[in-house]
User: Fold this.
Amino acid sequence: DAGVTQSPTHLIKTRGQHVTLRCSPISGHKSVSWYQQVLGQGPQFIFQYYEKEERGRGNFPDRFSARQFPNYSSELNVNALLLGDSALYLCASSPADTQYFGPGTRLTVL
Amino acid sequence: SQQGEEDPQALSIQEGENATMNCSYKTSINNLQWYRQNSGRGLVHLILIRSNEREKHSGRLRVTLDTSKKSSSLLITASRAADTASYFCATVVNFGNEKLTFGTGTRLTIIP
Assistant:
């Protein structure tokens, strides 16, 4: 079975631009979560979606938004990019307690 | 914000030795999980221990949980070069809400 997939792998943007990151969960998993990992730190929770409904939101500004589609795939959108948004963005899907992570999208903001 | 702190921040041992990493957290939890991350890529789930469990084993891994001290430890026995990675503990506060709150991580280096 395929694991969690994320696209793109790497992305370079400039300040003020907008970015969309995509995630496809493991087949049968209805919950998708997004995390931001800044270099040298542990991942920080951004959003969780279950059955297309937002179930949780971390301490991130409104520039960050997400949605989940009927096929349970998800998008993370970040508007008005700042240099501090440079990070590894991780998506995870879950059938229950355990979360299975994708390889991440490395976002660099110049 | 980070829920927990791992200790030590970095650990280097010889291949074949045992590695122990510790994690402390701040609030009551439903479960605690350990993850491994290679070279800043995706995280791999290692083991989950629930708040009513005290010890759990999986292959060469042993995890303990002390809820009175709000701490956990991960023991990797007979270490191998492939164990070189960063290890994170993560807590889940509420059952049914799978939000993971991660610690700061331990960077483990196995010297061949």
In short: DSSP finds no helices and eleven strands in chain A.
